[in-house]
Structures are given as C-alpha cells and as structure tokens.
Amino acid sequence: MNDIFNFSRFVKYAKSQLLLQRKLLLLTSSGGFLALFIFTLLFLGSSFNWREQNWTALFMTSGFIIAALITGNAFPFLRNQKACQNALMIPASTLEKFVYEFALKIVVFSILYPLLFQLMASIAVPLIEFIRPDRTYIPFSFDPIINPGEEFYFTALLMGYLFTISLAFAGASAFRRSPLIKTVLFVGIIILLIIGYLYFIFEELHLNNGVEYALTNTFSEKSEAFSWFFFFLGISSLSSFTYAFFKLKEREA
Amino acid sequence: MINIQKLSFCYSKRKSLYEDLNLESKAGSIIGLLGKNGAGKSTLLKLMAGLLKPQNGKMLIMDHVPFQRKPSYLQDVYFVPEEFSIASTSIKSYLQSMAPLYPNFDHGKMKQVLLDFKLEENQNLGKMSYGQKKKFLIAFALSTNCKLLLLDEPTNGLDIPSKALFRKVMAGALSDDQLVIISTHQVKDVDNLIDRIVLVDDGRIKFNKSIISVTEKYAFHTVSELNEGDFLYSEVAPGGYRVLTSKNGVETPLDIELLFNALTNGINLEIHE
C-alpha cells in the first residue's frame, strides 16, 4: 500500500471532509461574499470618482485580507484537542491531509475569488448606479491587474500573494490558538530583525550615499534586483509550506 | 500484535509517566487496561494510537511504528477517546462520509449494533446525549473491523442498561484476529467481558495475566470473620469481608475489583503462564 499519497484514498478523504463540512463551507463563503458586497457598495457609494485604480486596490486589498484569514485558519482541527485526535486518526496520509487543506484553502480560493469578485462587482455597479443615478461608475476589469504597464508588477503581486499565504498557512499549522495574530507578530519580529541586519549591510555599502546608490552598486540592473527579490520570496514560500507539512506530520494530540 | 520494549514517555521533563515499560499482546483477546486515576491508561492508549510520540524505547504494533500514522496502520486501528468531538450531522451522513475510509467496514454489523443500542440512522449526532454519542462511536468502531480497537473509558456516560448492552454487543461483534484494549477505572463494567488484565501502576505494567490463569490459582470469597493467615488480601464489605485466597479446589468467579485493590495495595500474586 502506498502510505505517502494514494489518489483514490485522497478522493475518499476529500469527499468525507467536504460532506462533513459542507454547511460550514457554504455559510462562510456566502457570508464572505455578502460582506464583500456590502463593503464594495459602501466604498462605491462614498466615492465621487471611482476609477480603475480603485477597483484594483479593492480587489487586491480584500483578496489579501480574505486569503490571509482563510489560510491563517487552515487546519481548523488543530485548534481543538478533541477534533485534533479525530483528524489525526483518519486513515489518510499526512500529505493527503496537507494537500486537501492546500487545495481547499489556497487553490480553490485563488480560483473562486476572482470569479466571485467579478460577479459581485457586476451586481454592485448597476445597484449603486440605481441608488446614485447622478454618478457613473467604471465597471470592474482584470485588465489593469494583469497588464499594469509596469514591468514585474504582476509577478511581484503573485509572489507577494504566495509569500503571504504561505506564511499564514505555516502559522496555522504551528500555533494552536489565534494562529493569524501570532503569525503576524512572529513575522513582524523576523522582518524587523532582517531589516536591522540589512541596515548594517547597507551601512557597509555606504548607505549614507543614499539607498539608490547602494542598490545600483549592489545590483547592476533592475531586473537582477527583482530576480533576487523573487528568488527570496519563492524560497521563503517553499520553506513555509514545507514547515507547515512537517508541523502537521509531527503533531501530537 | 503489540510489542512494546523499554518505552519511556513524559509530558514534562520533571516527571516521567512511563519508564522502561514493556508489553506484548497477541490478537484474539479483550484486554482490560486497569489503573488508578493518573496512572497513564489513556496516555498508553494514545501512544498506541499514534497520537503521542514516545521519548524512548521501541513500540511496534502490527509491525508499524504508531506515531508514523501511516494510512495502512490507521485503517486497522480505531480509537474511541473518553472525551471526543463528533460532527453535527445525521448518523447516515456520518456513515456516508467516514465509512469508505475503512476498507473492512461492515454496514450490516453497523445496522445491527445501532439496533441493539436503539439508535436510528436519521438521528442527528449533534442533538444526541453524551451517552448516545458514545454508543454510536462504539458501534462505528466495531463496524470498522479494525484489528486493534482502543476504547478509553467506554462505559463512562452510559446508563445501567446500556452498560449491560455494551458488554453483550462487544462480546458478539468481535473476531479472533482482533485485539481490544479497554481502559477503565470502573472495573465492574468490564467484568465478564475481558479475558486478560493489564494493570498500570507507577509507570510500569504491574500485572499482565489472563483471567483464566488468575482464577486457576486464586479464589475470591466473602466471609463474615477473618482468620489470620487464611487470606492474601482482605477488605471490609457489607456483612463481613471480601478476601482473596489461594485456590483450594473451590472454583470462584473473579472479583475484579478485589483483585485490582489487592494488586494496587502491593500484594504480589505469582502466576506462571
């Protein structure tokens, strides 16, 4: 028997979890949709000049927040000792349980969110135009997000998104109580340490001549700087996911 | 089936719960895991289930290391904890979602045990009492046909008729290739059900003998007066004393409570199996 990953067993596991959680999943997703819809209406209603950039900002900000909330509360069974016992005893491998959470909380969300946002925006605009007939609103479009005109912008957005959710995911597997808050605090401290460390390095690189000078002396081209930045984000995301997997594997009840 | 050698486990570094614990067991019996409160009965079951990681020693169950929690192991082990949470859904829906994960699940047996326990498939688990939920979990555990069933205080929360029913259902629903370990401090509840006693005390297995070997060598009586030297252990009981004596040709049923008290009070019973 394949004890690492068996597709048929994974399907059985996923079906069992979806069957048991279907009410909760439906309630939270419809609640989230409704909340986003109300917030969008409030933003649209309070704005006199709603532009493409406003849609982009709203799409990204709400996307990041919701993604962090969802992935930060992944592995919900780890929050409760009794539920944890049940979950760990289910005959599926750690990888299968991990992939299920990853697929549901990250893949499915990342596919559904743009679609639901588009749907929500296409309902919100006519509605707000009906309520405020004196104003006109630009409909939402993905075009400025995918083709922003700025080099590396879309890649940076995707990498930043991946980095955020991977950290939230790792935090969800590591902390039993309030994982998202603890992850934010923990990551905040780490970032402060890194910034402090970088400060000393940049001081060596004559930071007093300006960051621009230090950067251009360190990285000959802009693309090189971005490559290093993406490489760092990619490695960090991969490490976070690996950490989350091993935390789940070593979990005691 | 179970091979535990020199197992050590502690929750905190200051005090260890188990040190050099050894236990071997074969399939085809129902073991009563007895011990005082805090002796570590539940911990031992959790270690066997793979929910806890031992600090030292060897623990092999069905040739698996439990803490690795491989699916091939988890498909053959079912643990009914004393405190549990269960999805708030109907029995039917629970069975639809969870039964396919156990390859040997027997739906016929499930129906029969549910009938015995007077539970119906359309009942919602979220609206059941603690005792009913426990009966459902026991029914589910038996129907998985897992080779190893670990039941932690299964009779806690059951009413008197249900306790009798539990014994009846357990006795009738097991096969020879299964091993059941029932941890309990309510020793009377597993009377006439278990065929082996394992007593945990002071971080060690203090006693591990079959019921037959105990009753072959020792007798359990109630007497009105105590005669010095006639007994190995005694305790006051209504109308006299309960005594544990060497068997002198008289066959007596096992008084599991008396045996437990004798063992935990330091009486050493010499039984060779």
Automatic annotation (TrEMBL), chain A:
Keywords: Membrane, Transmembrane, Transmembrane helix. The chain crosses the membrane at residues 24-45, 57-78, 98-117, 152-172, 184-202, 225-246. This is Uncharacterized protein.
From TrEMBL, chain B:
The keyword Methyltransferase does not apply. Coiled coil: none annotated. It holds the Pfam family ABC_tran. Residues 2-227 form the ABC transporter domain. Keywords: ATP-binding, Nucleotide-binding, Transport. PROSITE patterns: ABC_TRANSPORTER_2. One of its GO terms (molecular function) is ATP binding. SUPFAM superfamilies: P-loop containing nucleoside triphosphate hydrolases (SSF52540). This is ABC transporter ATP-binding protein. It comes from Marinifilum breve.
